[in-house]
Design brief:
Elements: E1 6-11, H1 25-43, H2 46-51, E2 52-63, E3 72-82, E4 87-95, E5 100-113, H3 124-130
Length: 140
């Protein structure tokens, strides 16, 4: 199974800039979440989207370089290992013009049953579509 990466283009907004003149750290986490949601919406089946949504259990993020006013960003995301209840997702935040790594994140996501609002054990088709074997995880 190949790693299915998804890319989301982002434009740095004026409201993203903090008092130090660069993108605030919390904005990077928003971008991580935005990329994950966009990937799910783009790749999931209608049935999957009608029955599941996702909540974050944990974020790990490493900041490498600052994003600045006017920068265009690419958030690249993919899913790594998965169990029935926890999915690892990796995200790299890149500056578009030179693809320089600005931040990288690992997030643990929990699938939630839309009807009950409780964690949901997912079927094999979701794990197969949205995770990869350990030996196929790039940079994981």
């Amino acid at each position: 199974m190949a790693v299915n990466k998804f890319e989301l283009e982002i434009k740095v907004a004026e409201s993203d800039i903090d008092l130090l003149g660069h993108v605030n750290n919390i904005v990077y986490l928003k971008w991580v979440q935005d990329a994950a949601v966009a990937h799910w919406i783009n790749a999931a089946t209608e049935d999957q989207k009608e029955n599941l949504f996702w909540v974050i259990k944990r974020h790990e993020i490493d900041y490498k370089q600052s994003a600045l006013p006017g920068d265009e960003i690419i958030a690249v995301t993919w899913v790594g290992r998965a169990t029935e209840l926890v999915f690892e997702r990796y995200t790299e935040i890149l500056r578009a013009k030179d693809r320089r790594l600005l931040a990288k994140a690992k997030t643990l996501w929990i699938p939630i049953n839309i009807k009950t609002g409780k964690p949901a054990r997912v079927d094999a088709d979701v794990r197969e579509s949205f995770s990869v074997p350990d030996d196929k995880i790039p940079g994981g």
